[in-house]
């Protein structure tokens, strides 16, 4: 059984990581780098396997796939 102290420390570490990521994204999006930031978010990225082609913008990859993985990691009981 995991002690409360260990559980709380891991939970706080994850929250700090999430908070810092959000703060960095807001700062970059509102700085002089905003044009580069938005052009990067609109780049198409994808892959092809046989006849199947999956191509989405970086923004869509982040919203659909990476956030799902991150939130799964964030709320997993094994971490």
Topology of this protein?
Layout: H1 4-29, H2 34-41, E1 44-49, E2 52-57, H3 58-74
In short:
The chain is an alpha+beta fold and 79 residues long. Helices cover 65% and strands 15% of the residues.
Order of helices and strands: HHEEH
Report the end-to-end length measured between terminal Cα atoms. 13 Å
Mean pLDDT: 81
Strand content: 15-25%
Low-confidence stretches: none
Helix content: 55-70%
Count of extended strands: 2
Shape: flat
Give the radius of gyration. Answer: 17 Å
Secondary-structure class: alpha+beta
Main sheet: strand order: 1-2
Overview of this protein structure:
- By secondary structure, the protein is an alpha+beta fold.
- It is 65% helix and 15% strand.
- The chain has helices at 4-29, 34-41, 58-74; strands at residues 44-49, 52-57.
- A two-stranded antiparallel ribbon has the order 1-2.
List keywords for this structure.
about 80 residues, alpha+beta, two-stranded antiparallel sheet, 3 helices, 2 strands, about 15% strand, flat
């Amino acid at each position: 059984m995991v002690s409360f102290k260990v559980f709380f420390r891991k939970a706080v570490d994850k929250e700090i990581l999430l908070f810092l990521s959000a703060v960095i994204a807001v700062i970059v999006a509102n700085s002089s780098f905003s044009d580069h930031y938005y052009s990067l978010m609109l780049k198409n990225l994808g892959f092809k396997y046989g006849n199947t082609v999956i191509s989405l913008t970086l923004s869509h990859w982040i919203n659909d796939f990476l956030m799902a993985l991150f939130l799964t990691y964030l709320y997993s009981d094994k971490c």
